[in-house]
Amino acid sequence: MQGHKNFWDKNAGRYDRFMRKDRAAYDEMYELIRPVVKAKTVLELATGTGLIAKHIVNAAAHIEATDASAEMIAEAKRDTRSAKLHFSVQDMFRLPYANQSFNVVIVSNALHIVPQPEKALAEIRRVLKDDGVLIAPTFTHAGNSFSGKVRAFFMKLAGFPLRSKWTSEKYLRFLRQNGWAVRKSVVLKASFPLTYAECVKSEV
Question: What's the mean per-residue pLDDT of the chain?
Fold first, then answer.
């Protein structure tokens, strides 16, 4: 995990510029997320510079936005203006929150880059209320076009920690196999296909 964390620490200052090319897809994603978090207590994992949290906070009751990278959290805090939004450095595999603390958990573009994503899902399950919602949008690289494969190759050369290469279908199957019922999914057009998944707890 240390090398993974160092990559994000080193690239924290460039992250927002890097994500600008996918702004249209993210705008669509915010529209999907806002009704789900309305007046709810939300935990966001792998918040990065807080892009999602800052765009949806007005709809939520409160957001705890976390990331393993201290540099990313420092960037996120630079222009935080909402009293409803709190940033902190946390490990998604060992969260400090009590069981069933949150109405909604968001983990965006993270499950494909962490080791043992099923363990992250188990920890999310623990802190999410039984009637809560998991929002887990993830870039699904495996179905890439040629240009997408070229981008993925250069990202790997730069040290980008891509661990799981899923198609959209395989990603949704992975969620189902790990105790989640997918109640809504949409593939958004971005640099790589972005599979938006909205889930509730199911029997494992």
Answer: 84
* Polymer length of the chain: 204
**What residues form DSSP beta bridges with 180?**
201
Distance CA 180, CA 10 (A): 34
What secondary structure does DSSP assign to 162-201, as a single string?
A: ------HHHHHHHHHHTTEEEEEEEEE-SSS-EEEEEEEE
CATH fold, domain 2-201, is Rossmann fold (3.40.50)
The ranges assigned to domains in the chain are: 2-201
End-to-end Cα distance, the chain: 27
Top pLDDT among 156 and 97 is at 97
pTM for this entry? 0.83
Query: How do strand 138-139 and strand 194-201 relate by DSSP bridges?
Result: antiparallel
